[in-house]
Amino acid sequence: MVEVSKLEVYTVKCRYPDVGIIRNALEDIARVHVIEPELLKGADPPPDLIFFGWGKNEIDYSMEDEAEARIRHLATTCILLRNLRNAVAFRDVPILAVVEQKDAEDAVFSTQFGSSGFIVASLEEKEIRRVVNEAMRPVGNQANIDVRLVNPFVNATLLVLEQLAGLKAVKKDVHLKRDYHLFGEISALIGITGQGIEGSVALTFQDRLAHQIVSKMWEKNPEEISREDLHDGLGELVNVICGKATTELSQDKELNFNLALPTIVSGYGHQISQSESVPCLVIVFEAAGKSFAVQVAIRSEVFSQSSPS
Amino acid sequence: MKILGVDDSRLTRKMLRDVVESLEYEFIEAADGKEAIEQIEKHQNELNLILLDWNIPEPDGYEVLQWAKHKCPELPVMMVTAMGQQEKVLKALKAGVNDYVAKPFSKEDLARKIQDIALKK
């Protein structure tokens, strides 16, 4: 009998009773570990899923000013969540925040800082299974990654980055996305249309790497790069990468792509507005010792009808 | 020799300027189709070459190309663009584009192509 491999699930800052319920709920499909946040950095392979305790019980009510105590807790929790997201380095690991009661403010903050969803304590096993199934399901109507769609973007990214910025990047990982969130601090997006084609491509970076790349493109020092220089450079990068990749794709499949003008989105936790049927994959790269990702959300009749086995 | 570079990216305009000025030619620029048409009208008697991106705000590069070829049929136009699809390149060639450079381009290649066009004049 073939043993189906279990999911590796980490719980971070969750209360022990909650960890027990999660363990029971997922015992046939997952191994559940309790992890200190700092141990997550560089975890290789990364976990399949993380439960993150929002921990309102940790608010220091002994402080004189209760509002100040709440803000402090919120700030530390958001920073910790962001660090968790950064620690998994653009990999699409769902992070589910465990909150004690449904709180719209917490929900907004948690998704802005990297969580994929919410689960409300006291936890129920059935609800945990439902939320986990939902979080693990890829977006779009395609069950597999079509390599014919991946390789042109990998090739274009490696070539363009070297040619425009003199940087050698390495492809680290490719996976299907479970939502359209971008995990970088700044992203360059471009819409793609054509006959039977719909979608977008995004490059997403941490600010520091974005500055480093763009400063090389401008042949300036990173500290001399203005916001306008940064936006312009990233826009050109996504434009040229998409141009190159769609050229390769159109030669192979006789597809006709049209690229929109690039746009730049900055700030943590942004998401692309996309029709839910569009499959989304992310290609993680490393350059200058830092990760970045190219997120490709394209639906094409050609790719959905004739996926390779 | 005066060359107009049309691209919505400031970075690309800077790269075009670097190449053109390294050849000791004069460089003027436009960031969109409207500005490109204004520049062509203003400098049409002294302009020797247009370096034109396809993917610019309206009117797009193709429309600027058609307008320029109607207004100044002898003025050479080089498409400098990320869109390397055969159909679009053919469309540009049919509309009278003299040469084509795909992004990302090397400064040396672009300089060579500009020189080729300059020498033909």
In short:
Chain A has 309 residues and is α/β, with parallel strands linked by helices. Chain A has helices at residues 16-25, 66-87, 104-112, 125-136, 147-165, 207-218, 227-253, 301-305, and strands at residues 7-12, 30-34, 49-53, 95-99, 117-120, 169-176, 186-194, 197-205, 257-259, 263-266, 280-287, 290-300.
Give structural notes:
The complex is a heterodimer of chains A (309) and B (121). Chain A is an alpha/beta fold and 309 residues long. Chain A has helices at 16-25, 66-87, 104-112, 125-136, 147-165, 207-218, 227-253, 301-305; strands spanning 7-12, 30-34, 49-53, 95-99, 117-120, 169-176, 186-194, 197-205, 257-259, 263-266, 280-287, 290-300. In chain A, the strands form 2 sheets. In chain A, strands 6, 7, 8, 9, 10, 11 and 12 form a 7-stranded antiparallel sheet that branches. A 5-stranded parallel sheet of chain A has the order 2-1-3-4-5, with helices on both faces. With 121 residues, chain B is of the alpha/beta class. Chain B has helices at residues 10-22, 33-43, 61-71, 86-94, 107-120, and strands spanning 2-6, 26-30, 47-52, 77-81, 99-102. In chain B, helix 2 (33-43) runs parallel beside helix 3. The mean pLDDT of chain B is 89. The interface between A and B is medium-sized, with 25 and 19 residues.
